[in-house]
Amino acid sequence: MTSLLEVKDLEKAFGRSKDVQVNVLKSVSFSLKHGEIIGLIGASGAGKSTIGRIIAGLETANAGQIFFEGQEILSLKGKERRSLAKYIQMVFQDPYEALSSRMKIGQLVAEPLVIQGIDKGNKEKRIEKVRRALNSVTLDPDKYIDRYPHELSGGERQRVGLARAFVCEPKLIIADEPTSMLDTSLRLELLALMKKMNEYNQVSYLFVTHDIALTQGFCDRLIVLQQGEIVEEGKTKDIIENPQHPYTQSLIDALLILENHKGD
Ligand SMILES: Nc1ncnc2c1ncn2[C@@H]1O[C@H](COP(=O)(O)OP(=O)(O)OP(=O)(O)O)[C@@H](O)[C@H]1O
């Protein structure tokens, strides 16, 4: 079976001029299977978000290839590239910034359908999909559809963000630190919802996080990124219990120190 996503030798440099460039991604290669959940972990500045943004088409690459269901997507332009958003959606870190304050929840969740021209002219079908997406994130459509984002809590807004990602029934969701602005119980709740959708309709996730603790019980595999390079990858359990690379070990040590100081 072909992979859902295959990233090959991805490179990215940022800089103020042609002469002053910093390589933030150095030949990054990995693949993700249909229905798989991969955690992309690493410290701040490692390049995790940049990888997610390139896959989602929000950033360009300097070199490399990305195959989505066998089709190379970095070379696609304009309408063809934009049409991929139906299959690849992104959930962002900040539920306050991600949602336009002037739109009602129903309109916000319907927006990806409108942008993609899905069920154009079929208002009933769109409403049905919006209601289904809200239900899937345990927000009662009757209660939420006519409300505005400022009337919602952070956890509810992030669930709206997730409903927006689910509404097109994508094959891949890139979730960039989606829980980092939520407290612990809401974090686990959001991950449980994401896991349920994965079991229910096989959606795959690339879960970007600096918090290795969140990947336990959620991610099938982990990819560890250090300064733009993959230093280790494998099954979540194997990596957490038996890290091979000193950098991975240091991420786990940092986690253990935090755990031990929780009661202080
Ligand atoms: N648009 C940009 N222009 C210039 N430099 C950038 C830009 N976007 C990212 N960078 C730089 O690229 C590097 C990788 O950033 P990226 O956001 O991908 O890291 P990250 O691993 O997601 O970090 P964090 O966990 O803090 O979000 C950083 O050094 C960052 O400063």
Automatic annotation (TrEMBL):
UniProt keyword annotation of Nucleotide-binding present: yes
Top-level taxon in the UniProt lineage: Bacteria
Gene Ontology process terms (BP): peptide transport; transmembrane transport
Keywords carried by this UniProt record: ATP-binding, Nucleotide-binding, Transport
SUPFAM superfamilies per record: P-loop containing nucleoside triphosphate hydrolases
Pfam families assigned to the protein according to its UniProt record, in alphabetical order: ABC_tran, oligo_HPY
PROSITE patterns membership: ABC_TRANSPORTER_1, ABC_TRANSPORTER_2
Family designation: Belongs to the ABC transporter superfamily.
Ranges of residues in domain ABC transporter: 5-252
UniProt cross-references to CDD domains, sorted A to Z: ABC_NikE_OppD_transporters
Name listed for the protein in its UniProt record: Peptide/nickel transport system ATP-binding protein/oligopeptide transport system ATP-binding protein
